Amino acid sequence: MRHKATIKDVARMAGVSVGTVSRVVNSHPTVDPATRLRVTEVMVGLDFAPDALAQSLRTQVTRTIGFIVPDISNPLWAHILRSASEALQAQGYSVMVASTNGERSIELEVLARIARRRMDAFLLTLDTPLDAELQRSLAQLFAPVVVMERDLGDQWNTVVTDHGGGSYAATRYLIGLGHRRIALLTAQPALRPSAVRIQGYRQAHEEAGLPVDDSLVRCGAFWPEFGFHETSRLLSQEDSPTAVVAGGTQLLPGVLRAANLQGVAIPQQVSVVSCGDTDLAQLTRPAVTVVRSTPASVGLVAAKTLLRILSGDDDGKPSRVVLPTELILRDSCAPPARRLAAGRPRPGIDSLTCRAKFE
Amino acid sequence: MRHKATIKDVARMAGVSVGTVSRVVNSHPTVDPATRLRVTEVMVGLDFAPDALAQSLRTQVTRTIGFIVPDISNPLWAHILRSASEALQAQGYSVMVASTNGERSIELEVLARIARRRMDAFLLTLDTPLDAELQRSLAQLFAPVVVMERDLGDQWNTVVTDHGGGSYAATRYLIGLGHRRIALLTAQPALRPSAVRIQGYRQAHEEAGLPVDDSLVRCGAFWPEFGFHETSRLLSQEDSPTAVVAGGTQLLPGVLRAANLQGVAIPQQVSVVSCGDTDLAQLTRPAVTVVRSTPASVGLVAAKTLLRILSGDDDGKPSRVVLPTELILRDSCAPPARRLAAGRPRPGIDSLTCRAKFE
DNA sequence: CCCCCTCAGTGAATCGATTCCAAGACAGGC
DNA sequence: GCCTGTCTTGGAATCGATTCACTGAGGGGG
User: Fold this and answer.
1) Does A280 touch chain B (CB under 8 A)?
2) Which helix (H) or strand (E) is B157 found in, with range?
3) How many CA atoms lie within 13 Å of A139's alpha carbon, on the beta-carbon side?
4) Phi–psi pair at B327, nearest 5 degrees
5) B84: Cβ contacts below 8 Å, ≥ 6 apart
6) Closest-CA residue of chain A to B50
């Protein structure tokens, strides 16, 4: 036997019409039990399974979700995909994945390609500005969308992490330890995680009545190399910072590498806080104080939002969920070495877990 | 406008038949240039894009690849997916992803679901035994398959890493340093990476004329918790090993945690080699000697194999690619503390890079 | 005995494309 | 003027399912 059995084969072998077979497949009530049994037997005998393509063409439902992110090998997106697809698979959905590498041309190309496949809905994260062109691409999807970790506007369902609150808590903590020159490393300021981290950082300074030295805020990309490069420069400059906030999980390796290479001791010479908890943060010496977020929750919440929309019982208004972060204190922070600025020392943060109220 | 334009809409607006529009879409040669121009204008005017579902139903080609692995959030599979999908996307293919969690029931369920979608081909990694039931599920895919990191038999196209050679090199290196009690931690022995690691470990012992203490070979799972648990037990037992080989990238965090917790110094009290290079291995103190493999190559080679098969110029015989590993020496290994066994010390390995000739 | 209603099941239309066969237009050769 | 061949185009069949309108059979009530 060279090809898969079709509904026609089943109909012929069972001596019924294709309509009847279809009704058996979809467990339609008006089928005689005897007929149903006979058809079912033929179906298992032929290893029949209805062609999803044909079903989708007819019913306009594919039970497939498009998942589009900048880089699927980044543990962040990998974890989000894992938890999202687990929830979606459980409801019989399949997931089609595409990486855009954060490049505009690939984003457009992927959206166009995947739109033709008639996904039922989309989980996505775009890195380039939402201009008219992209707006049109999204409209062409003709399907509900949940945006993850980005702010694309009020009209989109959104699930984000409170990176602003995390950054605020980390900065406040460092200020409380006496730091006055705190560097913040993060990605392009156009991306929400970067933008709100800068915001939180500024707010912490403001509330403490401290000025912000803009040269200490370095924006680039979520790559270890960027973390390495900027940390190297920062640590070797004359007026070097006494603390560094790595605003991105992937930046920590670069920061540590740079500090190691220059023989700068953590936390004696420079304090470090990283955003995103990892094995590295936990197991390096000293263990690194981190702002912990929960990527798996992002995926899960996004998937549940989609499922709610697809099931129909949804008010239709775009939803927005902000997931909390917490500051986990470890051993990578200490008061700055003797270079204490004027003014009395500020109180430290009293609880290990500092749920952010920011945003 | 409520729905996407179809080929019929275009035909009506351009005043031609659907056949002609289709010929324009597929750049068939026998179309009058003037007609082609007119139809093309209507197409861009309507934002027309052919429905991939309908095309696939008719042509029996979906330009979609199924990607099935145990856990998509594991960096190993995430990197493989990234490199594979990059190569496939470049050729106009989309990728449908599913995680099986290594569970038989999910494997079967996912295979059945995805088979109905008529993928053009599959990249997959199964964790449960290839019995008749699974064999049938695979046959039902009616599409070429490339198996990654598993041995499912000669009839399958296969891409694997030479984990056996890596384990052999690591073990030989440790034996050369004078170790006589070397523990090997790895996953279920039914999985190829575990099986060949044990093989390599044994061969290194054999060649050195050393017996293997089976109680030092611990098989469980590729989880940090397993690494932690087994290392804790091993280090606290009376006749504890002087070296540990972590046979799996994910095991290292567990091994390090256990050693830290018990205050066992690396490499003074126990030497450690890990399989799989990571930021953690590079940045923890001491930096960990590793067997480096290249997951990205696995994905790339697997994707290229598929593309070759799909393009038709393929001899039809199942192919098999084995990717090399290399041993990267760092600071986590030293001769065992004074407990030297009888016999003279063996020579160390002379080159930093020890390409494995094993297998 | 007839009518009506219900229950099963048939067959055709449909989803949106591709592709093959046939036919019309037109030119050129005889 | 007719025949043939080339170049375009139209139209129908097809892929594999769903679904709706309709047909018959059989039962119950009047």
Assistant:
1) yes
2) strand B157-161
3) 11
4) -90, 125
5) B67, B95, B123, B299, B300, B302, B303
6) A116
